[in-house]
Specification:
Blueprint: H1 2-18, H2 24-36, E1 43-47, H3 55-60, E2 64-69, H4 72-81, E3 87-91, E4 104-110, H5 119-132, E5 133-142, H6 149-155, E6 173-180, E7 184-191
């Protein structure tokens, strides 16, 4: 976890610049918020908020938005970029959410769980998502399928198919390069679901 925090603190600004797009799945989730928001005030938590690029979708539909990221630098960036009184940001881990039980109507987790190291922490993250959701709340999860041919071919992590893994890692863990103009090639941890 410390290595993941250090990596995202290092690349926060360039990561945010490369991630200005919004996935179609998240747009669909936001449209569901609009439908749920017949009474204004739906509370949305996004785990792994990065620079807050999804906040505007929730806010535009009358929701209150809370973004959480493991990287203090990402949270600092999100606070700077998203200036709305209905948005707040916090530093924390998916496996140990700093929120009370039943605090949110919806939880968004976009391309994050595959960065949570160890099966124990991933299972804890799922328990925490369930804990902070209100009864009848919805969790929206999106993860990359690293077994898809396009990713196997692009990143050449074929060893994963045969159970090979980096030393000290779980089965199906890989490191995928992030090419940084300022810092060179950095390796990002992924777990292949």
């Amino acid at each position: 976890t410390n290595q993941i925090v250090e990596l995202y603190d290092t690349i926060a600004v360039e990561y945010d610049q490369k991630r200005k797009f919004v996935r179609s799945e998240v747009k669909e989730w936001a449209e569901e918020l609009r439908i749920m928001n017949h009474e204004l005030g739906i509370r949305v938590l996004e785990i792994g908020c990065g620079g807050g690029e999804h906040a505007a979708l929730a806010l535009a539909r009358g929701s209150f938005y809370t973004g959480l990221d493991v990287s203090p630098r990402m949270v600092e960036l999100a606070r700077f970029l998203v200036r709305d009184e209905r948005a707040r940001f916090a530093v924390g881990e998916a496996a140990d959410l700093p929120f009370a039980d039943a605090s949110f109507d919806a939880v968004w987790v976009v391309a994050v769980l595959h960065h949570v190291p160890s099966q124990e922490k991933r299972q804890a993250a799922f328990r925490e998502i369930a804990r902070v959701l209100k009864v009848g709340g919805r969790a929206y999860l999106f993860n990359w399928n690293l077994f898809a041919w396009q990713w196997l071919k692009r990143y050449r992590h074929f060893g994963m198919l045969f159970g090979l893994r980096p030393p000290g890692c779980d089965r199906r863990d890989v490191f995928i390069p992030w090419k940084s103009p300022e810092h060179g090639v950095l390796k990002r941890y992924y777990h292949a679901f």
